[in-house]
Write a structure and sequence with these properties.
The chain contains 26 helices and nine strands. The protein is α/β, with parallel strands linked by helices and about 600 residues long. Helix 2 packs across helix 3, helix 4 packs antiparallel against helix 5 and helix 18 runs antiparallel to helix 20. It is globular and about 95 Å long.
Length: about 600
């Protein structure tokens, strides 16, 4: 229990520290946060809207949680992100419970630390996006399955893990958790956790009676004999193994009560889907299922594509930082333990199934984003935590691979420090401060490597864990706040909002979602077109009564200046302020007419006069 408390406190610091310090990051965070705020303002728990328009991207679980958070803490960055952070912390605790059942209470804290400080998991848990709730609900479903199907049996001489098929009430609990996941992000909330559980159940049903066997569906005496007979025999054995797997898959799927699964998920999530379909005349359902599910699977959207498999393998390496420094020895430890320690096989197989389902499914889908596979990170943490435990207990017998991992940590840590102190400062002058995280990682890796050389690998891995936790914590506490200091275009907007009404500000071009959140609603805007009609609409707004202002990108200023000069005369425009766009070289400019002119109607020729 003490180790649970320590891990919970460490992960709470990483996930909650300075959670509201930085403003919401475009684009998803402000869209989700504003959607929840509008639903709360309207007293509407059914129809999601953003800037007054229907938002069909995601179901409502995150919005509901944010609405409750807003009622307690007010509408701000902290309350918008708090639901995800709490879901992240809950996911860590659920993963610890899985590890305790499958790997033992001594391994569980290592699993919790590795998950709660993995780069991509922390990012998902500190963002106002549906990923945090989805990861929690998916992990909850798998955790319920593990707790109900694996029983610890203690005898006078040993302790063993027995597999028992869950009863009907157990499956109802599993599918109720999947129903919540469907409310978080749609059909994948049932499909993918169900596949993870199904694959693991297939393995367990085929091997739990003889846990000393090699634990592979294709392993059998006839198969081994066939392999020795030649290529043809191998082909036949492979076909037979595939056939057995298909039969086992169909049998297991039926035993998992698929009709009950649909009934429970419909009972949990169905009422809202029916209600939103009725309230929007089916528009929300059509756009969500056809555009944001089917279309994303069949073709890349918004330029989000990449090579199958390799994209997500690379994502896993980055996303499990800093533990990915030991990717190869982690694989060695998992394989070695699978062969030599039958008692840990269920955990390793669950980890492999977890990763294989999510990586495989989203590799097939055309649209690819790193966040899509975040629900499999608890499964990855099982193997990472097991590796850390084995090294800490001096049970890992490949010191060369340990040294390679530490040297990789040194190289990556130095690379982070140099990168943030050099090229990154061109865009973010304060980035060098965040380079402290890289220095911490490099120093911890140096100490770890030195201790391995001195035959103290256990102390070496403990020092690396301390350094890794500190490095991740520093990245997410220092980095966002320092980067936020350079979002001067948002400062420009808030400055203008402090001096005038929202309706008095017009934006030329696309409005950033964060502007809608911080303006507490939609801003007047004109879309930039080639024939120059937007310039007339812009100038019409500026000459209306009141303190009218336009926000224009710097690359459009020559056209705006020429148009206002032609329409109102020279020196008719005042530039109130300028701000550099975040991570870009383009400016935003706030302008107004220097004196309220008499109403002027632009002629057809004036409308299209431009100056490039």
């Amino acid at each position: 229990m003490r180790s649970w408390i320590i891990v919970t406190c460490l992960c709470s610091i990483v996930l909650l520290a300075d959670l509201g310090g930085a403003r919401l990051w475009d684009r998803d965070e402000p869209r989700n946060a504003r959607c929840a705020a509008e639903m709360l303002e309207n007293g509407d728990w059914i129809v999601p809207t953003f800037a007054g328009e229907l938002r069909t991207h995601k179901p409502p679980l995150l919005y509901w949680m944010q609405m409750v958070s807003y009622q307690v803490f007010g509408v701000n960055e902290f309350s918008a992100r708090l639901p995800s952070a709490l879901c992240g912390l809950g996911t860590v605790l659920l993963t610890i419970s899985i590890a305790t059942r499958l790997l033992g209470h001594r391994v569980a804290p290592w699993v919790g630390i590795s998950l709660g400080t993995s780069l991509m998991f922390v990012l998902a848990s500190r963002a106002a996006t549906p990923d945090g709730p989805l990861i929690f609900c998916s992990t909850l479903a798998i955790a319920i399955y593990v707790q109900l199907s694996h029983r610890i049996v203690e005898t006078e001489s040993s302790t063993r893990l027995e597999y028992h098929w869950p009863n009907i009430l157990g499956w109802i609990a599993v599918y109720a958790a999947c129903g919540l996941a469907v409310l978080a992000k749609g059909p994948i909330g049932l499909l993918l956790p169900g596949c993870v559980i199904g694959l693991h159940a297939i393995w367990q049903l085929n091997h739990s009676k003889n846990i000393e066997s090699q634990g592979c569906l294709s392993d059998s005496d006839s198969g081994s004999t066939a392999i020795g007979r030649g290529i043809f025999a191998r082909l036949v054995a492979g076909i037979l193994a595939a056939g057995r797997f298909v039969v086992a898959a169909i049998s297991t799927a039926w035993k998992m009560h698929p009709l009950l699964a649909l009934a429970v998920v419909l009972l949990v999530a169905g009422p809202w889907y029916v209600a939103v379909g009725r309230e929007t005349d089916g528009v929300w359902l059509r756009e969500f299922f056809l555009e944001h599910n089917v279309s994303r699977a069949l073709s890349p959207m918004e330029g989000h594509d990449g090579p199958p498999i390799l994209f997500y393998l690379g994502t896993l390496l980055v996303g499990t930082f800093p533990w990915s420094m030991f990717a190869i020895p982690i694989g060695i430890a998992a394989y070695d333990s699978y062969k030599k320690q039958p008692e840990v096989r269920p955990a390793i197989v669950l980890s492999v199934c977890w990763v294989a389902v999510y990586v495989g499914f989203f590799s097939i889908a055309a649209t690819k984003l790193p966040s899509y596979i975040t629900p499999c990170y608890p499964g990855v943490a099982l193997c990472i935590g097991w590796f850390l435990y084995r090294v800490a207990e001096s049970q890992f017998d490949w010191p060369r691979w340990l040294k390679a991992g530490f040297f990789c940590g040194i190289a990556v840590g130095i690379g982070i420090a140099i990168g943030l102190a050099g090229p990154a400062t061109e865009l973010l002058p304060d980035a060098s401060i965040v380079g402290i995280a890289g220095i911490v990682l490099a120093v911890a890796s140096c100490i770890g490597a030195a201790l391995v050389v001195e035959k103290h690998a256990d102390l070496g891995i403990r020092s690396f864990v301390i350094g890794g936790v500190l490095a991740t914590g520093l990245l997410f506490t220092l980095g966002p706040r320092l980067a936020d200091n350079h979002r001067t275009e948002l400062d420009l907007l808030t400055q203008q909002l402090a001096d005038r009404q929202r309706s008095e500000i017009i934006v030329a071009g696309n409005i950033e979602p964060s502007w809608v959140f911080y303006a507490d609603g939609a801003l007047p805007a004109v879309g930039i077109d080639d024939d120059g009609r937007w310039l007339t609409r812009l100038s019409d707004h500026l000459q209306q009564p009141g303190d009218r202002v336009a926000l224009v990108r710097g690359n459009q200023m020559p056209r705006v200046t020429s148009h206002l000069t032609n329409r109102f005369g020279s020196e008719s425009m005042d530039i109130l302020s300028k701000a550099r766009g975040f991570l870009t070289k383009d400016d935003w400019v706030a302008i107004r007419l220097n004196a309220p002119p008499a109403h002027v109607t632009a002629s057809k020729t004036e409308e299209t006069i431009t100056n490039y």
